[in-house]
Give the backbone structure.
Amino acid sequence: AQTVTQSQPEMSVQEAETVTLSCTYDTSESDYYLFWYKQPPSRQMILVIRQEAYKQQNATENRFSVNFQKAAKSFSLKISDSQLGDAAMYFCAYDRDDKIIFGKGTRLHILP
Amino acid sequence: EAQVTQNPRYLITVTGKKLTVTCSQNMNHEYMSWYRQDPGLGLRQIYYSMNVEVTDKGDVPEGYKVSRKEKRNFPLILESPSPNQTSLYFCASSLGGGLGEKLFFGSGTQLSVL
């Protein structure tokens, strides 16, 4: 069965600094998708970034980028120039067939 | 506006009193799903549906029922709620499971079962 593991329950970063959130997953499939979702205090779920497993190029969205290591089954999220609005719970998710599985989340604090 | 509408946002009930949380999407999405979010456990899938009249269990289906009679609606039914079902619930939809499509989430339902 597929699993998604986020090993850092909480992290803190100074405003304007860079932070990396870790995510590992377990699968025997070769084609799948990976996501990072953000949940601010409003509790609305917001898509941050998406990666297709068959694409070697790492996805980027403005200040957000991923380090996708398919062989290692690792999918970390890097946030550059952290802003106060980045404070949220971040969830890594795996999508294959009909099951979309989420990790337990990492709560990110931004220190002013 | 494309959205998933979930109601109610907050619900307090007592053990054993049947309740329904409604979920509706206006994007003609095939895939709909229910999750519960608990501290330290992340989002866990309860049930999902690939299309009308097609539903299947997720990781934590016990104590829940769903139906998909129309494409746009996917209600979550708790026939006899218990305190361990106190949680934050999310409905979500997308064009299709396994297609790498973005999930659109409802605004969540905070349920307390006393």
